[in-house]
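Side project, low priority. Logging it here so it doesn't get lost.
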Amino acid sequence: MTSTEIKEGKTSAIVGYLTMIGALIAITMNLEPRNSFARFHIRQAFGLHLIFLGCAIFLSVWFSKYAWMALYLFYFVMWIYGFIGALTGKLYPVPILGSYFQKWFTFIQ
């Protein structure tokens, strides 16, 4: 991957980490001039947001203060890891789930 490609895809990659709506906007931003750097980070961000929302829905039924704190801590740490990767132009998948996000969300082009 060239530095030009990273530079061109950085905006879409960063927008992808700004909430689930940001991830959906980033998907549409990356439709016409497809960028592999942006695609990588959009998949990571979309996966993080989806896992967070799914777990939050589950925890809304089964309330435990410690489970909520663990969910927020997990999400925040993973989000920071991915966001810093997007800012610095690195292609490091988020720990534990990142490689799965690349396989599961192949519809994100």
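Brief comment: Helices lie at 3-16, 19-29, 36-61, 65-88, 98-104.
Revisit when time allows.
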